[in-house]
Amino acid sequence: MDLTPLYLSAKLSLVSTIILLVLAMPLAAVLVFVRFPGRFLVDSLVNLPLVLPPTVLGFYLLVIMGPDGPVGK
Description:
Elements: H1 4-33, H2 39-51, H3 54-65
């Protein structure tokens, strides 16, 4: 039995967890302790995945990263 997919999944989940912790912890601290003009907008963007269904988020990712989107150009 080939366990390569299991090792790849474990490695990917570990790396993505570490990257997200490194990015999310300082962002959370800034949102809690620092008052700045765009705080509400940043807080809304951070909470957006909790409100929108995954299919809508996937569609927006396709639009943004597609050939006609701002990232895909």
